[in-house]
Design brief:
By secondary structure, chain A is α/β, with parallel strands linked by helices. Chain A has ten helices and eight strands. Chain B contains 22 helices and 16 strands. Classes of the chains: A alpha/beta (about 300), B alpha/beta (about 475).
Chain lengths: ~300, ~475
């Protein structure tokens, strides 16, 4: 599958100037640029005097613009909900498969950015909507999946539906039955808003999918936060996190595999957080088994 | 001792319940103080609080602790280490007088240096709140704080850089590639310092050895640091790792530092352990601290103080341990503490001023995150202002993009811009090395060689297929 988010190639194609005309205009190229095969760092950019060459300066501006858009472009909730429809059969038994639309107490993005406390709480209408739902259901479920815009609407827009699809299908095939709550989509939310939602839905666990703070090279990172026994006031030490979920980072199917592992373990141990260790990844990070590298060999 | 502070303006009387409220409300506006609920309620109230502050005798801060002596080891450090005889010079001044005196021709660099042990962080914070940006720059410029290990940092007319070759998986070839890039752009005279992606002792020791080998092989007059927790570095020293500098993030209240997992005792032990290794050649300042406004509130450890006052108190911790380097990581914490370029720039200048006035070898991580209302132009402005103010060092990374920490700071190119625009030189030992290695062609005019330096060209040939790249 072509990866529309791969930063390095698509962007440098857009802005890369002709090498000959660069040199003619006085740009000094760096022969060590070949080392970019070994790192995503912006090394060997060359220089005009001591300053950035035009193409590299614009490549940076583009990356920053994309990261800014990821923060500020609002989530297209209609299209997201279309994508999420029909994936989850809620345990409520009312037959609806449409996601529930919720909003935090942060009324807009500027408030959201300055008041993280407001992004952790549901507004009155959302609280009421959930309260009514719980009354009708009166039934405990095993898991509530909550999709939150967070700091990257782009991550949520692109990756939330395929991830939920992958995870829902894995849960359906699991040896244990997983009763799922109705899917929730939250605008202007932070991770901890899942605690309030999970509690109102009588969920034994909540999994929050949230857009992570965009990096210059990763405007579309999704974060997954698992909390057992969610209730307002839960601290971050009681959560497990899977980070950097995106096509150029942790692949969706791998993320789903890890999430399933954590969900099973949380259910078995009846807890989440620091006492629940992610051992799903047997490939412990180990680098460069060779004795040295080019600088010191 | 603590009473109500009043000020009558026209037919309205403003009241402030205590000194902490005067300090907080006198602070130039920023989102973190709003989040904490300590910000002035109107622009007028802010200036009134500044007027109240200006009339307060400096002695007030010796009589009235903002965080109780019994509750906080940093307050005890500030009070117990205060030098009353050094304070004599300014003992009769109010905060407003202090601003005038700092700007006057009487306060020469020599006078200011002698005064340092008589100034408390709260006095520095107070006077900074009634200073404009140009005041913060002009006075900081008079405060030289020079330190040394293998290079000398903080001389007048000089600015150094920390080469920051972070990599998201600590891949040693990736790290080496960024180190090479930085050195060939003339960066790294303050330190080559890595934030490890995997923060444990084994990983840190591995990175310490890598940096040590690079510094030894090319005989670079600089020092290394792996920015891991102080207790990890202590373990590394016990294991015989080549530790130049001990790193720790520090805050301005004991509760902040407890949340970071250390106390003053740990820093004292670390300083003496690192000094005992005797690895410095031109000096033996062995500590590296990072700070930043908002850390105390973030740890719910701010005791109702404004974030800039908490930050200034962190410099009391820093100066106790004679660090080589201290920098505020000014825009890293995010827009809930410093919302936009204007707030980040103001905070950067305040932190640099307060640190320098107290005798801290202050640098700045001129930086921002993508959810802050800031961009490269704001960083250009702050870098230029700090260059004029005499900032000891800034960060240097490839193309401003930290691919591990996901934020933007100053690039190798940015440092060269500041050198040329403001005629700022490198640490002398490092500058001589750059010329010897044929990296720098003309240090007076800040001109690099165009050809690949021979020794590094040979290193590139070690790459698979590397002969083609030389």
């Amino acid at each position: 599958m072509a990866d529309p988010t791969d930063r390095s190639d698509s962007q440098s194609d857009v802005t890369k100037a002709d090498p000959a005309s660069r040199r003619e205009a006085g740009v000094v190229d760096n022969p060590w640029r070949a080392l970019r095969d070994f790192t995503d760092a912006r090394i060997g950019l060359g220089r005009a005097g001591v300053s950035l060459p035009t193409d590299e300066m614009l490549a940076f501006q583009l990356a920053h613009a994309q990261a800014r858009d990821a923060v500020h472009l609002p989530l297209d909730v209609d299209s997201l909900c279309d994508g999420l429809n029909d994936i989850v059969d809620s345990a409520g038994g009312d037959g609806t498969t449409e996601p529930l639309r919720l909003h935090s107490q942060a009324s807009d993005r500027i408030t959201y950015l300055q008041r993280p406390d407001l992004g952790r709480r549901l507004d009155d209408a959302s609280h009421k909507a959930l309260g009514d739902g719980a009354d009708a259901a009166q039934k405990t479920c095993d898991l509530a999946i909550v999709v939150v815009d967070g700091l990257s609407s782009r991550a949520v827009q692109a990756h939330a539906a395929p991830f939920v699809k992958a995870l829902a299908s894995a849960l359906a095939q699991d040896a244990e039955h997983w009763a799922l709550a109705r899917l929730c989509v939250v605008e202007q939310g932070r991770v901890a808003i899942g605690d309030e939602i999970g509690a109102l839905l009588n969920a034994r666990a909540v999994l929050v999918l949230i857009g992570e703070r965009p990096g210059l090279s990763s405007p579309d990172s999704l974060g997954l936060y698992l909390t057992w026994n969610p209730k307002p006031g839960t601290t971050d030490a009681l959560r497990n996190c899977i980070s950097n979920v995106r096509p150029a980072g942790l692949q969706l199917d791998e993320a789903s595999r890890r999430a399933l592992y954590l969900l099973r373990e949380a259910r078995r141990l009846e807890l989440s957080g620091v006492k629940l260790k992610d051992r799903s990844d047997s490939n412990v990070i180990e680098h460069d088994s060779e004795p040295g590298n080019f600088l010191i060999s | 001792m603590s009473g109500t502070y009043r000020y009558t303006l026209g037919d309205r009387t403003y009241r402030f319940a205590h000194l902490a409220e005067v300090m907080a409300k006198a602070s130039p506006a920023r989102s973190g103080d709003r989040l904490a609920g300590v910000i002035a309620e109107s622009a007028e109230e802010r200036v009134v609080a500044q007027m109240v502050l200006a009339e307060l005798p400096l002695k007030t801060f010796l009589n009235e602790a903002l965080v109780a002596y019994e509750d906080d080891e940093i307050t005890r450090l500030i009070v117990d280490d205060h030098d009353a005889s050094a304070f004599e010079t300014i003992a009769h001044l109010t905060v407003g007088d202090f601003r005038n005196w700092l700007l006057s021709d009487d306060s020469t660099p020599e006078v200011l240096e002698k005064l340092r042990p008589g100034i408390t962080p709260e006095m520095a914070a107070a006077v900074s709140k009634i200073m404009r940006n140009q005041d913060l720059i002009l006075v900081a410029r008079k405060c030289r704080v020079t330190t040394a290990f293998r290079s000398t940092i903080g001389l007048a007319g000089h600015m150094s850089t920390r080469l920051q070759p972070n990599h998201p998986t600590d891949d040693t070839t990736g790290i080496a590639a960024s180190i090479l890039d930085g050195l060939l752009y003339g960066n790294g005279d303050a330190v080559i310092g890595i934030n490890p992606a995997t923060d444990n002792v084994a990983q840190s020791v591995k990175l310490m050895r890598l940096l040590d080998e690079v510094i030894c092989k090319y005989e670079i007059p600089t020092q290394s640091c792996v920015l891991t927790h102080v207790t990890n570095t202590m373990e590394a020293i016990e294991q015989g790792a080549p530790v130049d500098l001990v790193f720790q993030s520090i805050g301005g209240t004991e509760a902040t530092n407890s949340s970071f997992g250390f106390g003053l005792k740990d820093l004292a032990e670390a300083e003496s352990a690192a000094q005992s290794l005797g690895r410095g050649t031109v000096g033996n300042n062995v500590m590296y601290f990072e700070t930043g406004q908002g850390s105390s509130l973030s740890a719910d450890a701010h005791h109702g103080l404004d974030q800039q006052t908490c930050e200034a108190r962190a410099y009391a911790v820093a100066r106790k341990f004679k660090p080589l380097l201290v920098n505020t990581v000014v825009g890293f914490i995010g827009p809930e503490y410093l919302f936009d370029g204007k707030e980040i720039i103001r905070a950067g200048l305040e932190d640099h001023f307060c640190g320098k006035l107290l005798g801290v070898p202050m640098g700045c991580d001129v930086c921002y995150t993508n959810h802050a209302e800031a961009d490269q132009n704001d960083m250009d402005n702050l870098l230029t202002l700090l260059g004029v103010a005499g900032c000891n060092f800034i960060m240097g990374i490839p193309g401003s993009d930290d691919i591990m920490l996901n934020y933007q700071t100053t690039s190798f190119h940015d440092a060269l811009y500041a050198r040329r625009a403001l005629d700022l030189r490198l640490a002398p030992e490092f500058e001589a090395w750059l010329e010897r290695m044929q990296i720098m062609r003309d240090a007076d005019r800040h001109v690099l060689h165009e050809q690949m330096p021979p020794s590094f060209a040979r290193s590139l040939e070690n790459l698979p297929g590397g002969a083609d790249h030389g």
